[in-house]
From TrEMBL, chain A:
<dbReference type="InterPro" id="IPR017871">
    <property type="entry name" value="ABC_transporter-like_CS"/>
</dbReference>
<protein>
    <submittedName>
        <fullName>Phosphate ABC transporter ATP-binding protein PstB</fullName>
    </submittedName>
</protein>
<keyword id="KW-0547">Nucleotide-binding</keyword>
<dbReference type="GO" id="GO:0016887">
    <property type="term" value="F:ATP hydrolysis activity"/>
</dbReference>
<dbReference type="Pfam" id="PF00005">
    <property type="entry name" value="ABC_tran"/>
</dbReference>
<dbReference type="GO" id="GO:0005315">
    <property type="term" value="F:phosphate transmembrane transporter activity"/>
</dbReference>
<dbReference type="GO" id="GO:0035435">
    <property type="term" value="P:phosphate ion transmembrane transport"/>
</dbReference>
<dbReference type="InterPro" id="IPR003593">
    <property type="entry name" value="AAA+_ATPase"/>
</dbReference>
<keyword id="KW-0813">Transport</keyword>
TrEMBL record, chain B:
<feature type="transmembrane region" description="Helical">
    <location>
        <begin position="185"/>
        <end position="204"/>
    </location>
</feature>
<dbReference type="InterPro" id="IPR051124">
    <property type="entry name" value="Phosphate_Transport_Permease"/>
</dbReference>
<dbReference type="GO" id="GO:0005886">
    <property type="term" value="C:plasma membrane"/>
</dbReference>
<keyword id="KW-1003">Cell membrane</keyword>
<feature type="transmembrane region" description="Helical">
    <location>
        <begin position="300"/>
        <end position="323"/>
    </location>
</feature>
<feature type="transmembrane region" description="Helical">
    <location>
        <begin position="88"/>
        <end position="119"/>
    </location>
</feature>
<keyword id="KW-0813">Transport</keyword>
<protein>
    <recommendedName>
        <fullName>Phosphate transport system permease protein</fullName>
    </recommendedName>
</protein>
<dbReference type="GO" id="GO:0005315">
    <property type="term" value="F:phosphate transmembrane transporter activity"/>
</dbReference>
């Protein structure tokens, strides 16, 4: 189900402030693409333009083109709600619905789509939790609140919730930054498995993580505070971390950034 | 022994200053702390003593009256405490109080929640602010003013609504209009709904505003529409807050006095239809009878006040139970 993303000439604004400027890139299906860069460079903003979440922030506005295979996400008559059903998202802090059980959390997206048959829901919930490597830990407590799980389990629950609706793309906004190293490892292993089925885009501050999990890496930077963020380069991860073509990338990766 | 190696080996080792430290753990008492502690502890105790005193007073005077009562205090429709023998009961008052408050809740809670959602999630900010402000002002209007408005504006304009209810719901019996003046428990309910709307709206609005952004984004990212976000994230998170808000409103509705007295034409009857004039509430009955009551009459009124007091306590207790039962799902732990 994975689809290719093709971005061209994309600008995103907060009110009149231009947050990211003129971004063009291609994100390959069934691969992991990592976004790295200093804080404030617009990588999270860019990620949120890929499922039209940017515009839910007051003043958020986008122009440019994001093609998901043949469909422009910002084309006329495209419903942002429908876009978000195709492009799933996992957030920085685990955010299971606190009022719902583990089971209901995973089933939430399906119920939104109008699937209510118990047997079908049971199947998808089990499949998604297995897909998120969480099934064995929660199979005896499916009816307990999702917020009672540990942080790492909650984040995998959120991943299960996102993949339950079989999206074409999975966006992850620093999914491990609130987790301990062991939970982080569990999520990274999971990302490796999920890329067989989905197009995955991950924002991370952890360059080792980008090097470990991603196939392609995009480096974002901004000229100065108050200036828009820009895409500096995107290339195979190996190349970015060994022999990048732009000096700024090398400076950032080697920690010589000033 | 070298002090640098001793430290990590025994972290809690207090060292040579141990006696002074253990003294300090008990706390250096500063005059400011002591005064504040005394004031806050005193205030806390004072509230408890006050509550106990009120309960004791009500119970004592009520017992005096009830022991003289020749009718059944809970089931009698009579109110003749100065008669020989004295006969009085609270059935009519309990019915009127509960029914008018329930009508008020049924009308006010959905409207208040809808207004709160509109202000927090639908209205543009420059519209939501002023609306919230106006609602705050409504909460400050004295109840006598609501009573005047109810008697002079609401009552004369209810014929249309009563006719409509009679046409469509008259078959139920309880909403049948027999062409009496619309000074009924139903009208009281409408007026009480208007009066408790601001407080329920305000508290609900604050609760909805505190829904963490990340819970709403969780729903949005799954492809939820705005209404679905509200259903999945906002309402569940705000549930216990809305219940508390409703209980605050219910407390006010149960005890409301002047506005009810000005709108209702009271009688010691329970009508089959809520649209028939007549009935009464605890507070309204006390207000209209107290000035002219005999000693025995006052004690009887106090007995009815005690029942209102107990009903209010029960309502609050029930609300706490509802909230506590769903605590692990409340979102407070996330």
């Amino acid at each position: 189900m994975a689809k290719r993303i093709d971005v061209s000439g994309l600008n995103a604004y907060y009110g009149s402030f231009l947050a990211i400027e003129d971004i063009s890139m291609t994100i390959e299906p069934r691969s992991v693409t990592a976004f790295i860069g200093p804080s404030g460079c617009g990588k999270s903003t860019f990620l949120r333009t890929l499922n039209r979440m940017h515009e839910v922030t007051p003043g958020g506005r986008v122009d440019g083109k994001v093609m998901l295979d043949d469909e422009n996400l910002y084309g006329a008559g495209i419903d942002p709600v429908a876009v978000r059903r195709e492009v799933g998202m996992v957030f920085q802090r685990p955010n299971p619905f606190p009022t719902m059980s583990v089971y209901d959390n995973v089933a939430a997206g399906l119920r939104l789509n109008g699937t209510y048959r118990k047997s079908q829901l049971d199947d998808v919930v089990e499949k998604s939790l297995r897909g998120a490597n969480l099934w064995n830990e929660v199979k005896d407590r499916l009816n307990k609140p999702g917020s009672g799980l540990s942080g790492g389990q909650q984040q995998r629950l959120c991943i299960a919730r996102a993949i339950a609706v079989e999206p074409n793309v999975l966006l992850m906004d620093e999914p491990c930054s609130a987790l301990d190293p062991i939970s982080t490892l569990a999520i990274e292993d999971l990302i490796g498995e999920l890329k067989e089925r989905f197009t995955i885009v991950i924002v991370t501050h952890n360059m080792q993580q980008a090097a470990r999990v991603s196939d392609r890496t995009a480096f974002f930077n901004l000229a100065a505070v108050g200036k828009p963020g820009k895409l500096i380069e995107i290339d195979d991860t190996e190349r970015i971390f060994s022999n990048p073509s732009v000096q700024a990338t090398e400076d950032y990766i080697s920690g010589r950034f000033g | 022994m070298d002090i640098t190696t001793q430290k990590p080996a025994a972290p809690p080792a207090p060292g040579p200053s141990a006696p002074a430290d253990s003294g300090a753990a008990r706390g250096v008492t500063r005059p400011g702390d002591r005064i504040f502690l005394g004031l806050s502890r005193g205030s806390g105790i004072f509230v408890l003593v006050l509550m106990a005193a009120i309960a004791a007073f009500l119970t004592y005077r009520a017992t005096l009256a009830i022991s003289e009562d020749e009718a059944n205090f809970f089931t009698s429709f009579e109110w003749n405490p100065s008669g020989v023998p004295p006969e009085f009961g609270i059935a009519v008052l309990a019915f009127g109080t509960v029914v008018s408050s329930v009508i008020a809740m049924v009308i006010a809670v959905p409207v208040a929640v809808a207004i709160a959602l509109f202000i927090t999630h639908y209205a543009p900010r420059r519209l939501g602010g002023p609306i919230g402000y106006v609602i705050d002002l409504l909460a400050a209007v004295p109840s006598i003013v609501y009573g005047l408005w109810g008697a002079l504006v609401l009552v004369p304009h209810l014929d249309g609504l009563y006719g409509w209810l009679d046409d469509y719901l008259g078959w139920t019996g309880i909403l049948e209009w027999n062409d009496g003046a619309p000074r009924s428990l139903f009208t009281v309910g409408i007026l009480l709904a208007v009066m408790i709307l601001p407080i329920i709206t305000n508290v609900s609005r604050e609760v909805f505003r505190q829904v963490p952004r990340m819970h709403e984004e969780a729903a949005l990212a799954l492809g939820a529409t705005r209404w679905e976000v509200i259903r999945m994230s906002v309402l569940p998170f705000g549930r216990s807050g809305v219940i508390s808000a409703s209980m605050l409103g219910l407390g006010r509705a149960l005890g409301e006095t002047m506005a009810v007295a000005m709108v209702l034409s009271p009688s010691f009857t329970i009508n089959a239809s809520l649209l028939d004039p007549g009935g009464g509430t605890f507070a309204q009955n006390i207000a209209s009878k107290f000035n002219e009551a005999t000693e025995m009459g006052r004690d009887a009124l106090i007995a009815s006040g005690l029942v209102l007091f107990v009903i209010t306590l029960l309502v609050n207790g029930a609300a706490r139970l509802i909230i506590a039962r769903r605590k692990e799902y409340s979102g407070a732990n996330a």
